[in-house]
Amino acid sequence: MTRFPTGQLSKNIRGGASAAVLAALTAACGGSEPGLARGKMLFDTCSPCHGDDGAGKQSLGAPAIAGGSEWYLSAQLLKFRGGARGYHHTDTEGLRMRPMSRALVDDSGDIESIVEYVVSLPIPDPPPTAEGGDVEAGETTYMEACVSCHGRDGRGVDQGVPELNPPSLLHLNDWYIESSLRKYRDGVRGVGDAAGDNMRTYAEGLTDEEIFDVTAYIMTMQRLPRKIPAPPLPPLPPVDVDPAILPEGVTVEMVQEGQDIFNTTVGICFTCHLREGVGGPLAPPLTDDEWLNIDGEYESIIEIITNGVPAPVEYPGQMAPRANRPLTDEQVRAVAAYVFTLSR
Length: 344
Hints:
Elements: H1 15-28, H2 36-43, H3 47-50, H4 70-82, H5 92-102, H6 110-120, H7 135-145, H8 147-150, H9 174-186, H10 194-203, H11 208-219, H12 252-262, H13 270-273, H14 298-307, H15 329-342
């Protein structure tokens, strides 16, 4: 298995020097309008690490970024600028990126320009560099820990919450996927960042072997086109429930509405409990008769959805009140009706 050389640094791109170079280039671009031309000039200071074609350089720990998603590239630059990335003393690559991002001039169109140029570059197809990895075991791990956010094809599932949207995993370097998972697991990345905190929760329990395996599986999906939206998940069958078991005031129509809210981005419940409430690494299954925080009765389910779970008993995922979504009281009652039926 090829290992990622995290300690290598090139003298001419250390923090202070890189910031000075980029600041000088930014000043030279000062008279140009934001856009591709400006972005191409700014990219001259990115290419020593990421390559002229944006395909990345393993020796410097710089990943492939060409043809990436505009929203994700912009978000990462802002995270580096704000300290949500590159904060840990062992994150050599992140510490290098922080001054680069901070040299971009506020309100000048620098970020928009450089992102526009990077997005315009042809999407690379980095070859695998690692040997080994159990693809079958990796698929199992992926389906347990990754699929609810990154999708069955690795292109990412729109969560309906911009700050939680997961990126595509396609056309990335395998060594970068491995390195990123280790950083999330070890607290080197993701602290104080909503999406990063989610990733840390999933990665915390992964062994090195599981990281190698899931990376090997992700690499089997690499030739899918990244920018084509992922196909929607297959629709769930209509709720089949005996009206006789429903609490007073609850109808089958309410249960059906709750299913739709629970399993879509309207309620985003599925991102932790997974589809149909089967449970995952973040949150417990709702399909058995074991309840960790409540007695499982309808009114108590309403209460826990309304108030959230700030201190989980066993599973690590915190549950915000109403899942941090603008759910009405009627929608909360519908979700509670659906959850009530899952274990009965």
